[in-house]
Amino acid sequence: MRKLVLDSRQKNSVTKFEIVNIVARGHLGREIDLPELKKDILTDEVYIKGPGLYFKLSEDSPTITLARSGKYIITGCSSEEELNKEHERTLHYLSSLNLLDKPRDQSFEIVNVVSTYSLDTPLDLNNLVIQLGFEETEYEPEQFPGVIYRPSEYNIVFLIFGSGKVVITGASSVEDAEESTKYLTDVFAQYQSVDE
Fold first, then answer.
1. How many domains does the chain have?
2. What's the mean per-residue pLDDT of the chain?
3. Which of the four pLDDT bands, split at 50, 70 and 90, describes residue 190?
4. Do both 148 and 97 map to the same domain?
5. Which of 83, 104, 125 is the last residue of a domain?
6. Residue at 8 is within a domain
7. CA separation for the pair 165, 71 (Å, rounded)
8. What is the dihedral sign for C-alpha 117, 16, 63, 177?
9. Which pairs count as long-range contacts for 79-84, CB under 8 Å and 24+ apart, including other chains?
10. The CATH number of the domain where 122 resides is what?
């Protein structure tokens, strides 16, 4: 069995794990008149696009998307701490506009954590697809420069690039995203050790 890595002298260790985006959702428990609410939101960035009202509480803050149904999404946080602060700030802001009686939402949950990490060595993507199996991978380099890997035992998608960079999407918590790096690193080590 051929190695996945191009340079077998290096070990497949994970470096530079980073949370890129946390997406969370909740429900305000009421319907919203989006055009009327847009008039009340006094921020630099507020607009309606399609079925949602988008706004930021400050220039560099995450984006809040509100639907007419009362559902909302917060995107753009790079840590759970930042997400929790932004969530609290959003609910207080909406309460100040008399949209909520109290700044609470028990339904709020993380739905997707997007993260990246790098292996310390490049990968042979053609060989990688063969080793991981065609059932769980997609690789069409003329359309997308990386391997899309969906392991059956994880509800996570790995986007794996020849440089050794990996993007993880679909994790429902930061812990799941971190754990998935160990899983993928173990998979790479397994294939490398077969040939040594």
1. 2
2. 87
3. confident
4. no
5. 104
6. no
7. 34
8. positive
9. 79/19, 79/22, 79/174, 80/22, 80/110, 80/174, 82/22, 83/22, 83/24, 83/110
10. 3.30.310.10
Q: Give how far the C-alpha of residue 172 lies from the chain's centroid of Cα atoms, to the nearest Å.
A: 9
pLDDT for 184 beyond 50? yes
Residue 3: pLDDT band (50, 70, 90) is very low
Mean pLDDT, to the nearest integer, of 102-130? Answer: 90
Concatenating the DSSP letter of every residue in 98-144 gives TS-SSS--TT-EEEEEEEEEEESS-B-HHHHHHHH-TTSEE--TTT-
d(CA 184, CA 122): 14
Residue that is written with structure tokens 């980073």 in the block: 18
Q: 40 is in which domain, residue-wise?
A: 29-104
Do 39 and 67 reside in the same domain of the chain?
yes
Which of 86, 104, 122 lies at the terminal end of a domain, its last residue? 104
Rounded CA gap, 183 and 196, in Å? 20
| 39 inside domain | yes
CA angle 67, 68, 69 (to 5 degrees): 90
Q: Are residues 151 and 173 in the same domain?
A: yes
Task: Please name the amino acid found at residue 135.
Answer: E
**What is the rounded average pLDDT of the residues 92-116?**
93
Dihedral angle of Cα 191, 15, 167, 160, to the nearest 10 degrees: -30
Average pLDDT for 40-62: 93
In a domain, 7, yes or no: no
- On whether both 129 and 87 belong to a single domain, the answer is no
